[in-house]
Structure formats: structure tokens, C-alpha cells
Write a structure and sequence with these properties.
- About 30% of the residues lie in helices and about 20% in strands.
- Helix 8 packs across helix 12 (about 340-355).
- It has 15 helices and 18 strands.
- With about 475 residues, the chain is of the alpha+beta class.
- The strands form 4 sheets. A 7-stranded antiparallel β-sheet has the order 15-12-14-13-17-18-16, sandwiched between helices. A 5-stranded antiparallel β-sheet has the order 5-6-10-8-9. A 4-stranded mixed β-sheet has the order 1-2-4-3, covered by helices on one side.
- The chain has 3 domains: about 5-100, Uridine Diphospho-n-acetylenolpyruvylglucosamine Reductase, domain 2 (2-Layer Sandwich); about 105-215 and about 445-460, 2-Layer Sandwich (Uridine Diphospho-n-acetylenolpyruvylglucosamine Reductase, domain 3), CATH 3.30.465; about 220-435, 3-Layer(aba) Sandwich (Vanillyl-alcohol Oxidase, Chain A, domain 3), CATH 3.40.462.20.
- One of its GO terms (molecular function) is FAD binding.
- Belongs to the oxygen-dependent FAD-linked oxidoreductase family.
Amino acid sequence: MGNAASTPFGDCLNSVCDGMENCVAYPTTPFYHIEWAKSYNLDHIITPKAVVRPNSTNDVSEFVKCAAEYDIKVQARSGGHSYGNHGLGGEDGALSIDLVNLQKFEMDEETWHATIGGGTHLGDVTDRMHDNGNRAMAHGTCPGVGIGGHATVGGIGPASRMWGTCMDHVLEVEVVTADGTVVRASEDENSDLFFGMKGAGASFGIVTEFVVKTHDEPGTAVQYTYNLVFGSPSEIAPVYEAWQELAAEPALDRRYASEFILHALGAVVTVTFYGTEDEFNDTGIPQKMPFGGQGEPAKLILDSWLGMVAAAAQNEALYITDTPMPFNTKSVGLTASQIPDSDEIESFFDWVDSTDKGTPLWFLIWSVAGGAINDIPSNATAFAHRDKLLYYDSYGIGVGDTVETFIAGAHSRVLDTTGLSSTDFPTYAGYIDVDLADGTAQNVYWGDNLPALMEVKKTWDPNNVFSNPQSVRVAP
């Protein structure tokens, strides 16, 4: 367990473990950063004071009590994919509570509500729902992402235009709060805490159990993948502009999902339609796709939900995977009034063409949002970005000032087209930007909902037990 076990805080954690194997580790534990404190973004390695792996909600409660007693900050780790390694605390010295052993799954076959343990990864969520009644829900595509963070920050994925975010499926949660108390939260019980947990959960507690609504799996989907090869990024600008024009149609069918991914060798455009090929053709979307003359796309007719999720995961693996690596990333959400015009698009792609990237592994991604995500009022949950049409996010994989400068420069130019500044722009809290200062980050992630969230913090965590460098602070 390491020498840190001899401290009063270590003694407290050890007493909770009570001899259980693989329950707690400290920085002096062999292979600590390989087997326990596994940083996802290797450009921002974090060393927690300890990592624990509870076997039950009661274990989580007791670990939180230890941290509160000795003034140690706490963060939960479900899948560990935070861009800022917030599941490890986001900065050195926190207690990281790894929920890997919380794997409960039950399906109520009358209501079709599923109960899911807070440590379950999305790949397992998909499989277990399929095996229990061919049910499904919207979520992201990386199978190793944990639902504990995903469903408490938002959870955007290919089916979100059709069904909403992963978070929008959550009906009730079991939460360990800052004093170690275990409570239930829903719209009818502890509704203020429920508001905070749906979009800013890491600031308020640890969800050990979710109750979610589910859907019948779609029977069929059509997926196209266009690989566009050009001599330079600037040649892709007209294609992007046409893709954006389609994405901006107010009545765009909600079964349509798409990403435009610019990279060193050209671009990849993915299109998924949840329905039959005849239904897709009937929407008129295929006739509006801006890819004529660019070669035939790879086309898949998918007749199972498991196949649809697997195909989406394969597309996402182009630029971000479960594998830890050093990377820089930026993001911004764009409303219909903020998307760039023709001149701005041309200028942006020309700049990308002429700029040193510092790495061959860089990706600029635009994802279609809207649809069912926008049906819920922006103040109904902590997740505030209900009016977004597109998300832009970027990845520069590698180390060095040139990579960082390129990613920051691209982000700045996207902001220039919106009239927003580097300290006043909206983005999804799931796309953590480690460069945002305390104060700025909270406004960027939660916008107009931040004052209400600070009041919730005052009620449920006045001593700021659940904290990372960009979490919600206590209202003055």
C-alpha cells in the first residue's frame, strides 16, 4: 500500500478497505501511475494522494468521510477520459475514487427503466441493454468512457439529435454527498441537487447508481463515410461550406447525424441515418450532400444497434481513443447565428493551409447538434447549451509549443467568426480545456446557469470537498 498508509488519512482509508485486496494505493505503491493513477492526457499528468476502488455505495460514503475529515479534495473516476484528468483530481493531492467495481445492472421490463452502476463503461451499457430487451439510449461512441462522468456532464453522441443527450435519459440518481450521506435525487426529490448533477455532477457528489429511461433499438441505419483527398486544406473549404449549409437546415431530419473531420491528409465526413435507405432517400438529404465528384463513399447498411454503435466507435477512433496520449484540445458551441459565412470559411481554411501544425496528428472536427437536445429549456439542467447547432472541437496529438500554438490559433479564428472572445464563449463541459483559468472555465461551461449552481454548491458542498481546478465554486 505504500508508506502513505501510515498517515492518519491513510489509516482512515485502510480502515475502510479492512483488508480487501486492490482497494487502495498511494504514490509509493509500485506501478502507481500505470495501474492506479492512470492519466488519460499525458500532457497533464496528475498524482493523487491516493486512489481507492470501493465495492459498494457504503464504501464510497466512508471514503468521502475520510477525505472530508482530513481536508482532502475528492473526485470520482468512472472511465477516466477527462481531458484534464479531473477524475484524478485535475491537480496533485486529491483522493480519486475509482468506481470500476460498481457494475450493477437491472432492467425493469414494465417501465423499461434501467438501473446502472456508476462505474459502467458505455460499451457495457450498450451490451447489457441489448441483452435485456433490445433497449438503447443515446450516448457517446468511445466504449471505454464511463457513464459516471458522461451522464453527469451531458453525454453527446450520434443518436443525440434523435433522443437527446445521455444525461437527458437520467430519471433518478443515488448520490454520495460531501458529508458522506447517501441520498436519492430526481425531479421530485432533492431537485436542486438533481439539477446540478445533470451537467456539473463532479462539483456536487458521486453517483453510484443511475436510473434511466430507454428506447427500442433502431432496426436499421445507413452509414456513409466520405474520404476526401485534396492537395491542401483550402481546397476543402467549399465542401465544408456546403456541408454546413445542410447541417443548418431548420427542419433537418432528427435521425440524421454527421461529422466533418479535417486532418493532415484531407477530410473525412461521416453520415449516419437511423432508418432504412428508402426512408433516408425520402428525406431529400442525399440529394443535398455536397460530395459530388469526390468518389463513391463507403456505405454500410446496419441492421443491428450493436453494429451501429461499433461503426460509430470505429469512426471516432480516427482521432481520439481509449489510449492515453499527450494532446491539446479546444472547443466551442455555435448557434445558427454564429456559424461562419463563405468569406470566413475560406479565410479559416487558408490559415490552416499555411500554418505549421507541429504534428502530423491533428484533427479539426465539426459535429451537428440540435434536434432533441434543443427541446429542453437551457435552465432545466446544469447543461446550458441547448441552442447549439454545431460543435467545433480540435485535437493536436503530441508535445511542444508548436502543437499548442496551432490548436489555440485555430480556436481563436473560430471565435473571431462569432464575435466572442477567448474568455467569453460557450462550450460543453465534457470537452475540458485545461488552459481556461478558474472563473473563466465555469462561465464557459455553465453560462447563465452558474449562479444557480453556486447556490446548489453552498447547500450541498459548502466546504468544497468535490473539487477540481474548474469545478463549481461556493456562492459568496
